[in-house]
Amino acid sequence: MEQITISEAEFAQVRAFALREAGITLTPAKKTLVMGRWNKRLVHHGLASYAAYLKLINDQAQAEERRISIDLLTTNETYFFREPKHFEFLRDAILPKVNARERFRVWSAACSSGEEVYSIAMLLSDRLAHGNWEVLGTDLSTRVLERAREGLYETSRTQGISEDYLRRFCLKGTGPYADKVLMDRPLRERLKFSQVNLNETLPRLGVFDVVFLRNVMIYFDTPTKAAVVARVAQCLRPGGYLLIGHSDTLNGVAHGLEPVKTAIFRKTAG
Hints:
The chain is of the alpha/beta class and about 270 residues long. It folds into 2 domains: about 10-75, Chemotaxis Receptor Methyltransferase Cher, domain 1; about 85-150 and about 190-265, 3-Layer(aba) Sandwich (Rossmann fold). The chain is built from 10 helices and 10 strands. The strands form 2 sheets. A 7-stranded mixed β-sheet has the order 6-2-1-7-8-10-9, with helices on one face. The protein has a 3-stranded antiparallel β-sheet with strand order 3-5-4. Strand 1, helix 6 (about 115-125) and strand 2 form a beta-alpha-beta unit.
C-alpha cells in the first residue's frame, strides 16, 4: 500500500480536528500514528493528501466516514484485570459494604473492546451473591463497542483471568475458534454497552457507585480533563468512587473529590 506523507500544516489540522471532535490531544510524536491509521482511508477514497481527507470528513454529509476517522485515532489497548490494585480495592474495600437491597452500579467510562467491563462483571458475579448489580460500558468508538458486545477474545489476551474465573465465566472455543474464548452468555446478558462522548453533555445514565475512568485522560489537555471529570463526578453518588488510570493524573484539575489511594478518589457526602 502506498504510504502518503503528512505535512506539518496537515498534521496541525489533524490535531485541531482530534481535539475538537474527541478531546484528544495529539503530540508531535503521534504523526506516525496518524499516517499509519489514516493512510488506508486516503487510499480507499483515492485521495492524494491528508488535506483532501480532512475536507472530506468535515463535510456534514460524511458522518460515517468522520466516525471511522475518529475511531482510527483512538488508542484502544487494554486487557483483562488491568491494573489489578483497582480490582483488589473493589473486592476488598467496596463490595463487602454493599447493601444487598440497593442496586450496585458500575460505569466503565472508556471501556474500549470490553475487557474492563467483563473483568468488573466477573468480580461482581463472584462476590455479590444477591445478584443486584449492573455494569455499563461506554466508549467513543462504536467499532470497539461492537467487539465488546460480542465478548469474543483471543486466548492470548486472557492471561489476567484466574483459572477459577476462566472455568466459570469463559467458554473455550473449538475448531476454527480454538484460539478464542467467549464470555459466558448469562454474563454477557447482564451488561449494557453504549456510545458516549465524554467531551459532550452526557446522556441520562443515572447514578453510579463506582466509575472506572482509566487510561483515557492522558490524551486530554488540562481544560478538557477538568470538564470530563466534572461531568463524570456528577454521575457518582455521594460516597461513590472514581478510579483513574495509574498513568492518568488529576493535577491541576479542581474536582471536589478526596483522594483515597493512588488513582482512587471518593465523592464526599453532602
